[in-house]
Amino acid sequence: MAKRLAIDIGGTFTDLVVLDEGTGEVLLEKDHTTPENFARGVIKTIEKSGLDPGEINQFVHGTTVVINAITERKGAKTALITTKGFRDVLEIQRANRPDMYNLFYRKPRPFVPRRYRFEVTERLNYKGEVLQELDEEEVREAIEKCKEAGIESIAVCFIHSYANPAHERRVKELIEELYPEAQVTLSHEIIQEWREYERTNTAVLNAYVKPATVRYLRSLEEDLQRLGLTSVKYAMQSNGGTTTFAQAQAVPIHLVESGPIGGVIGAIMIGRAINEENIIAFDMGGTTAKVSLIEHGRLQIKTDYHIEKTATFAGYPVKIPVVDIVEVGAGGGSIGWIDKGGALNVGPQSAGADPGPACYGRGGTEPTVTDANLLAGRLNPDYFLGGEVKLEVKRAEEAMEKIARYFGIETVRAAHGIIRVANANMRGALERVSIERGYDPRDFTMIAYGGAGGLHAPLLARELNLKKVVIPRAPGQFSAWGMLMTDLRHDFIRTQVMPCNEASLERMNRIFAEMSQEALRQFAAEGVSPEAIVLERLMDMRYRGQEHTVRTPVNVERLSATDLAVVQERFHTLHDQAYSFRLADPIEVVNFHLVAWGRVEKPELKRLSTDGRELARAFKGEREVDFDEQGALKSKIYERDLLPVGAEIAGPAVIEEPACTTIVYPGQGLRVDEYGNLVITEVE
Amino acid sequence: MMAITKVDPFTVEVIKRALISAAEQMFVALGRTSKSSVIYEVLDYGCAITDERGRMIAQANGVPGFIGVLTDAVTETLRKFGKEGLYEGDTIIINDPYMGGATHQNDVVLVMPIFYRGQLIMFTASKAHWNDVGGKDPGSWSADATEIYQEGIQFPAVKLYERGQEVRDIVEILERNVRTPEMTLGDMRAQAASMKVAARRVQEVCDKYGLETVLQAVEACMEQGRQEALAELRALPKGEFTAEEYIDDDGLGGDPVLVKVKVTITDEEFIIDFTGSSKTCPGPINSPRSATYSACKTAYKAVVGPHAHPNDGFFSPLKVIIPEDTIFNPKRPAPVSTYWESMSYATDLVWKALAEAVPDRITAGHFLSVCATNVSGISDETGEQFIFAEPNAGGWGAGEGKDGENGLVCSGDGDTYVLSIEVAETRYPIIVDQFALNTSGAGHGKYRGGFGLVKDYRAANSKILVTGSFGRSKFPAWGINGGMDGTPNYMVLIPKGGRPKRFSRISVRPLKRDDVVRFISGSGGGYGNPKERDPELVLNDVLDGYITLKEAREIYGVAIDPKKMTIKEAETRRLRGG
Lengths: 684, 578
Description:
The complex is a heterodimer. Helices cover 31% and strands 27% of the residues of chain A. Chain A is built from 17 helices and 35 strands. In chain A, the strands form 9 sheets. In chain A, strands 13, 14, 15, 20, 23, 24, 31, 34 and 35 form a 9-stranded mixed sheet that branches. In chain A, a hairpin with a 5-residue loop joins strand 7 (123-124) and strand 8. The radius of gyration of chain A is 26 Å and the shape is globular. Chain B has helices at residues 9-33, 37-40, 64-67, 70-81, 168-177, 181-209, 211-235, 289-304, 340-354, 421-427, 535-543, 549-554, 569-575, and strands at residues 45-51, 56-59, 91-94, 107-116, 119-129, 156-162, 165-166, 239-247, 257-265, 270-273, 318-321, 372-378, 385-390, 430-438, 452-459, 463-469, 490-494, 501-503, 505-512, 516-520, 560-561, 566-567. In chain B, the strands form 5 sheets. A 7-stranded antiparallel sheet of chain B has the order 2-1-5-4-3-6-7, sandwiched between helices. The longest helix of chain B is centred in the middle third of the chain and has 29 residues, at 181-209. At the A-B interface, helix 3, helix 7, helix 12 and helix 16 of A face helix 1, helix 6, helix 7, helix 8 and helix 10 of B.
């Protein structure tokens, strides 16, 4: 029987999940990530798992190769060819100063230095009309200079190329003719939207990571082939879908957030199984917590993604669709510290995996969230990672002294200070995806995973009045599991501004039809059967005079006048929901967005077997756990892997499993559902 | 040391974050719904939440020059109406520059009291640049106004909303007095709606923690801010520090204008005194009192704690002395619509005075002026009025261990964006011929001043009107420790087939199709002797086309082989006299 394999490369571990399509059995494995050659870690993990590569009929891969090349500045030697008069756009950027009061602010350094930014004569206007023909002689000279300088990858971005790509295409032909060794990226092939800096930077970053990604995916493909894994291979993209290795090599920037998306997809699948379509996916790991909201079972996509952006750094815009994940520096390793005003802060600095929290006893001396959880009695010092790491309470206490002494309080109170501030940071992230966007948290179920998810989710859910918290099985490898459930996805976005009225109907339908053709062609090339293809149509709309838009679903293949009225009303409602007002003004359409899905068959979620599971056997004893405001309470401790379906546990309680600990607060109740999920709700 | 409070410090922290998040939500909501590019693209606005007395609790990133005045706007509102004269759902509009909280008429402040269970507990306030508020010229602000009446309609703190209802009379007067009513009213409603978003969030915080706890937490935050500022003050050098500068002219082409400052730092106070600065000017370069005060906050924060959480507790050690009837505190009805030309000097003077004393926080002078432009006309294609205002970015100063940044907005602007060329060309009938670094000279030094920009707008309409104000056209950014001064800001009009002409201020200057206006911003000042600059960095600057071979040789004393593009070591040693 066929099996599916997912491998997710993380910062510390490479996770493997195999799913047997027939039996629904899941096989888990993990091994250390091998940064010097990621492919080696992949092969090692496969070998360690003992699976038969010949049985695999589908392989999905989440990789950090793209984001690593960027953050470590280890990408290719890259050049830019652009319109005469505009080579400095990449350096000027938007000239904003987010670090408003700091005279020593340093703006983002461009990925292509000025000496490799070449200008050529050509010009289009915003309608795509040619104001000045492309000077091919200048293009040839620029290519010659690239060759002399040993440039590996060339980005091409012309002003208004989204409205007419002819000049960019011609440059590609010339590069292929004169310097075929170089990789080429044309800006319009990634996005067809206005804003020259954002588009140029996107093209440049794609060019920057292209050679490394091509090398990596080719070598991995060969290694897997050699191992006997001959199935079609997919890479996880930032847009919440997968793509073939071949397509990933053409536009590798789509893999930039390859890693964390799997968990969000997994959350949707769990939600589907338990009939919850409004979900907040909550992933708390070692260095950060990540939050993403899912409404009606749909991913939320954002198009203003930035790399390295912080409250005080402008970052680098990448104009591709990315699943809207809000990340805050609150993980198990995040460090608590006191600022100059005497306020307690947590993160974004993290003790990471090395030295790790103080209680790991590997040289860490700063108090972390994990140390705080240990001192509050929430973590079992003898059962961390199934006992692999023995936690030292004494060291945690020593580290926590710093905070306790400053405020003149006991260490356990200081520990709760850290937990509270970390929770406040995570709560901020949860509010950003929900309340701030007009969603009522009471309509949402939280699906919590990652090593620290179960420790913090129950209280956060209580504070935000979420419906309930669900801790899926194997929360540590949940992201890789989610990748197995992922469909293929391509996004097509076109900027075409027009009034949203009946006069535009024909144009609207023509644009969607053209994009649909393009999508079908691309899937055909990837061998996806037509019946597996699902197309979603969206329009970015606004009131005339506004600039920003509200993404509005279209839901029909061909728009009629009646359909259009429905879409307009939908826009008014969404605008009101997000910004608390509506206007009687005329509406405009700005972008047409087609999401093309190549559906992958998804197996039924496996129900929990009954063998050997019983509540009494799962009971491990009692210990005192400090619940902060509710005080220190004697709590029952259970082993998760022995809990049977239907088991009901009232808080205060702790559920332990090797890679995760779940806390049930007083006033909360936990039930094990038929799939083995832990479901926590407030008891009346 | 621990702040004295009845609420535990962790709850204080959590409430503080919730209030900042409320201010940020207000900011996002306005940006996403506005109708003018100066708001949605440039982000020329600021938002804050204050306590019931008007002390600022939380702000969102934006324009520091705007955020700094919001406290005054709330105080003005309270002075006029008193707490008893304000009701739930009221919103007050202020843009009279001679009242607290105002800068020029384009920058409109809205103030809304937040009620909780019938009690006025806080205020939200925001200030945004409205594209047109009437006056003599399209876009309202002008470089040659002689009276405030030419610069737009004035709202002297009146109710725009009363108990949740738009005051129709005010809105109709507004509608009739502006050139782009759809845009202006759209922005007005977006701004008012965004404040409700913040108010709702504040009320939710009170629901969760209880009003008493929230108010105590606010007090604790103020005390935290004050303690942080005092700790920083103790670490700063003490004494009196002075500086003076000249502004290009009086706003109407007269003589240069003297401005000066004395900064006194003690363990408890940071006093900025502008006594001795020029009288009120006849042209529109006067900085209203609130604007000057705000500029001082910007300067103070950069020196005392650039990354501290800004609230009025943090600002409490700041004292500002501004004599009346001066350029920094002008007398009605003097014009003020290009107030940044003096306001930015208020910040710059403080930094200049302290540059040598606080080298780890202050860099050499920057291009300083907002270099604001306003382009308007009637589109040939649509027949509609278009107006768009924007700032221009320029070069910042070098500091110890760091070159100046190339192309950032000025000190009065913050998380403010320059307009996208593709957006501008799509929305307005212009063609941009270049948008590039201005590498014609720089504030050379051991660390080099950052470069300004050059941008060409070509008219793609039978007629467009251009207004611009580019201060620091005669007196460029100052260098320090032997670093050279920067380069000037200016504009050049290049009529098709005609002779180019240089300007620093123009008002509604007509351009015909294919005439070009060139906007040029200057470099920041340098730091240290150029001859001490690392030769490798000099070579890199040549390779990147930032400086010429000639500049490398003559200014930096670095000889470079023009064929091999390598440093000629022996000759370089000789040129550097060592």
